[in-house]
Structure formats: C-alpha cells, structure tokens
C-alpha cells in the first residue's frame, strides 16, 4: 500500500512513529512536506509566502505518487490550510482514501466528517491503532477511534487519548523529516511520556479530560535510550524533550535522567512545571546535561491563575523554581499569556518586573486563543468576552493563532507590552521602568519585526539553550537559500542554453555541417 503523510512547517514526531510502524509492515510511506515559509504560525507575509511557496510542485508530486491513502494531522490553526490541500488533491485522487487526525478532529468528533466530506475517514485520539488497522484493511467497525460513513450515517467508534504500547515501544523514523531538512540531524526531538497531570483551562487537555480520564503514559526507558543512542551515532549534538512536563513523574524522571547521564550525555532542553521543580530534580537535570528549561507561569497573579486558568501554584512556588534554576545555572524561558479575563496593564507590568528580578532568561509571549472545547470558553461566554457565533467561526478555522493576537478583542495598549517582554533579556531594570512609564501614558504600537522577530533571532543566534529558535532560523536559512540557488541555476541554464544555440559570427570557426559534405568526393 502507498501511503502519503501530508504536513507543513515543522517536524512531527507522531508521523515518524507511524512511518516506522507502517514500513515494518511493508508499506511504501512517503512524507510530503510543505515548508510554508512566511506562513508557518510564527511569521506571516502573504507576499513573501507566495514568492517562496512550493505548494504547486509538491501537490504535483503527491498526484504522481498516486497514494492509496493520505494522512492529514490537523489542528485548528492548520484546518483551513489542510482543507485547501485536501480539496485540491481530491479532484485528481478520486480513488484514494483521505484520513484526517490530530487535535481538531479529536475535539469536534464526527461533526468533522459532516462539515468536510472530502475526507473519507477521521480519527479521534492518538490514532496509532487506527492507522495500523487501516493499513491491514480491518473492518471499520473494529477500529478504535475511527470515524467513518456507513449508509449515509456518520459513525464514531470509542477512542482513547493516549497511545498503545506498540506506539510507545517504537523508535521513530527520523529520516522521514531529515531528508527534507538535513539540519535537523543535529537536534534530536523526542518524547519520554504522553499526557498531563494538569487541566489548565486554556489547554487541549482541559477539553480531553471532560470526556476521558487519563494522566500520563510513559515510554519504556530502554526504548528511549536506544533511540537516543541511534541519534548519537547519526550525529545528533542536542536533545529536545517535548513532554508537557518531563518531571511530572518523579520516579520515572529520576530513572531516565540517571541512565541518560550515563549512556547519552548530550546537552538537552525540556519543559516542566513550577510544582515539579524541586531542588533534587533540578540538581539531577543539571548533572544529566540540561542546558535550558521552559515553564508556564502565564501571569503573576494567583487569583487569575486559580479562578480563570485553573492553575494552583502560588507566586512563591514560581519564584522558588526560578531561583533554583538560576542557582544551578539552567536558563529558564517562561510562558506568559496576554488576553486573560481579569488582566490589567499593571498586572502585566508587575509580571515583567517579577521575571526580571527572578532572573528568567527569556519570556515567550502568547495571546489567549479560544480553541474549540477548552474549558476557558465557558468563562469567556459567561463574562460576555466572546459569543457563540465567534466560537463557531474559530471552530471552522477562522482563528488568529496564539503567536499573533489570539482570538479575543484586546485593549490595543496590551499589544505594546509584547516588545517589553520579548526584549526583557537585553533591558536593564531602570530602562524597563522608563519604558513601562511611557507605555502607561502613551499607546505605542510597533511592528512585529521589532517587538518579536529581532529579539527572537538574537536569542536564537546567541543563546545556546534556545534550540527551538535555532531550528527555526536554520529552517529559513536552508529553504530560502535553496530557493535562491534553484532560481540561479534555472537562470544559468537559460543563459547557457541561449548562448549554446547562437551561431558564431565567424563562419570559419564553425565545425563543418555533415549534411553539407554529402556528395563531395574525397
């Protein structure tokens, strides 16, 4: 069976696992990767996106491959794009099976196939069992998580949030994305566990936990180590753990980090939670090779965190965590959200000084986005901040994602705060005071290139621990460079072709035409 995996912008670990599982069963698996420069959730420019687009050629490649099945992994942010690609391919690949999985189909369930009939199937949950069962051509009725059409009805099978053991015990096919982006070989991305102990109101876990009970599922440590040993052999120099909280299971984390220290030893970064950051665990992180962490703080206001965001750590817990990371020389990136009900300009300024005083190395700004199904939407509706019509539009993919201005109407003064947070590593406390006083009196809206992209690139280039930023920068350098070289090569071929077809003005310098010699005696 020929299977096409369709994805845009970044590496996707789940597809790498699926690829290994499917190839072991003899299937021909191919990734069709759309770089989506200047249209990748982080940087947007319609003009530049059009110039650097490779969409038409990749669509042609997919059509030439003529897959039996196409897999799309869809978030709310990528819904419109995926639908555009699927519609386009549907016209020519009439006999192929189009399967949609990911966060968005998982949240809205069988409604997905009702709205988007150009997909044949959809999957709720991780989808690992469904993918393999479909490749084995099992009956739809027996496939966990599958949404399908039968007798003009849409049927949804029972589903699960976390993957099965076969998925957890599989080593990912990293070559799948490395062939598209060779620079990724230096940075090995992975997961040690799936799920989350928390249910923050702005996160997809708050939505999933309304329907399913789950916490965390860990991978076999020996499988993880085997995967990382392979990565070292292939030349990886860094490791990135994308778990929601690597330290959430203390016993598991201690065992993993001790073995990692002994057998792998590569510098790594990870995500954790202020309540998981005990001194023992931070000391172990440092000794194992951790060079940077990311923690969610959202806003320095205990009441808002508890009553609106469903987070129960107090400010002192965050302060202690930042202090411990600083004491052990582990740079810390904190996640801060703008657009939360109950926020004020002064509360964000208070947060800014808190991060500066407690030595956060960088602040990552997000804008509150009312993604489908999250429990925060109930609060937004109750307070009249959003209405049902707006939520339906977001559910249809009409959303300005969390890295831009979210989905809520904000006081425009709050947008000017982004520059202060993003430039925090380079500003003194006195300068922050002066700038914040100016912003209190005067609205100052600066272009995104100043508020976000310049500090973004500086941190990526000069901060060793900002591996995700480095990958992002290298992606643009690689694909922009590739596009320029392709253009130059094309122009040079045209030039050489032009001159090769010209007649030399001096006839005596031209080789004789064989036809002109016909009939001439020797």
Task: Give the tags.
alpha/beta; seven-stranded mixed β-sheet; single chain; 45% helix; 522 residues; six-stranded parallel β-sheet
Could you provide a short overview of the structure?
By secondary structure, this protein is α/β, with parallel strands linked by helices.
Task: Describe this protein's structure.
This protein is of the alpha/beta class and 522 residues long. Helices cover 45% and strands 15% of the residues. The strands form three sheets. It has a seven-stranded mixed beta sheet, sandwiched between helices. Strand 3 (69-73), helix 4 (79-90) and strand 4 form a beta-alpha-beta unit. The protein starts with a strand and ends in a 22-residue tail after the last helix.
Question: What topology emerges from the helices and strands here?
Answer:
Elements: E1 2-8, H1 13-24, E2 28-34, H2 46-52, H3 55-65, E3 69-73, H4 79-90, E4 97-101, H5 103-108, H6 111-115, E5 121-123, H7 128-135, E6 146-150, E7 153-156, H8 165-168, H9 175-178, E8 187-190, E9 193-195, H10 204-211, E10 216-218, H11 221-233, E11 238-241, H12 250-263, E12 268-272, H13 279-288, E13 290-298, H14 302-307, H15 315-327, E14 332-338, H16 345-357, E15 362-367, H17 376-382, H18 388-395, H19 412-415, H20 417-422, H21 429-441, H22 448-462, H23 467-500
Parallel strand pairs: 1-2, 1-3, 3-4, 4-5, 8-11, 11-12, 12-13, 13-14, 14-15
Antiparallel strand pairs: 5-6, 6-7, 9-10
Helix pairs in contact: 12-13, 16-21, 22-23
């Amino acid at each position: 069976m020929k299977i096409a995996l369709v994805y845009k912008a970044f590496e996707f670990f789940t597809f790498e696992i699926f690829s290994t599982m499917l190839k072991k069963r003899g299937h021909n698996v191919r990734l069709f990767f759309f770089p989506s420069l200047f249209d990748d959730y982080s940087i947007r420019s319609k003009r530049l996106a059009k110039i650097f687009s490779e969409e038409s050629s990749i669509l042609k490649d997919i059509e030439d491959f003529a897959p039996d099945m196409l897999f799309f992994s869809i978030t709310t942010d990528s819904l419109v794009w995926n639908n555009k690609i699927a519609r386009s391919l549907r016209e020519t690949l009439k006999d192929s099976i189009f399967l949609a999985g990911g966060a968005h189909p998982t949240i809205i369930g069988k409604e997905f196939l009702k709205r988007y009939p150009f997909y044949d199937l959809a999957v709720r949950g991780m989808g690992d069992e469904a993918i393999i069962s479909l490749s084995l051509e099992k009956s739809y009725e027996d496939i966990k998580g599958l949404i399908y059409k039968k007798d003009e009805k849409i049927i949804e099978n029972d589903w699960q949030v976390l993957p099965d053991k076969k998925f957890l015990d599989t080593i990912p096919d990293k070559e799948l994305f490395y062939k598209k982006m060779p620079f990724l070989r230096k940075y090995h991305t992975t997961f040690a566990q799936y799920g989350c102990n928390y249910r923050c109101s702005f996160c997809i876990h708050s939505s999933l936990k309304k329907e399913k009970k789950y916490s965390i599922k860990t991978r076999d440590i020996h499988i993880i180590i085997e995967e990382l040993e392979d990565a070292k052999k292939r030349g990886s120099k860094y490791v990135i753990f994308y778990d929601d909280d690597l330290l959430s299971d203390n016993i598991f984390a201690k065992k993993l980090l001790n073995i990692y220290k002994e057998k792998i030893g590569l510098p790594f970064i990870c995500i954790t939670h202020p309540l998981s950051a005990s001194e023992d665990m931070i000391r172990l992180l440092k000794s194992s090779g951790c060079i940077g962490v990311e923690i969610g703080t959202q806003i320095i206001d205990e009441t808002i965190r508890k009553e609106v965001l469903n987070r129960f750590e107090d400010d002192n817990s965050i302060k202690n965590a930042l202090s411990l990371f600083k004491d052990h020389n582990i740079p810390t990136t904190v996640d801060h959200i703008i657009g939360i009900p109950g926020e004020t300009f002064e509360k964000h300024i208070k947060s800014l000084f808190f991060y500066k005083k407690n030595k956060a190395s960088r602040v990552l700004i997000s804008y509150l986005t009312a993604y489908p199904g999250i429990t925060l939407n109930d609060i937004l509706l109750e307070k009249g901040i959003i209405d049902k019509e707006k939520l339906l539009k977001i559910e249809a993919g009409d959303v300005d994602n969390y890295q831009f201005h979210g989905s809520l109407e904000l006081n425009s003064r709050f947008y000017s705060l982004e520059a202060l947070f993003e430039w925090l590593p380079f500003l003194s406390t006195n300068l922050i005071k002066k700038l914040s006083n100016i912003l209190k009196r005067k609205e100052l809206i600066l272009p995104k290139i100043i508020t976000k992209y310049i500090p973004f690139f500086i941190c990526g280039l000069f901060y060793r621990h900002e591996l995700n930023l480095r990958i992002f920068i290298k992606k643009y350098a690689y694909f922009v460079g590739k596009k320029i070289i392709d253009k130059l090569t094309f122009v040079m071929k045209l030039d050489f072709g032009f001159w090769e077809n010209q007649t030399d003005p001096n006839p005596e310098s031209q080789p004789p035409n064989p036809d002109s010699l016909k009939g001439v005696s020797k």
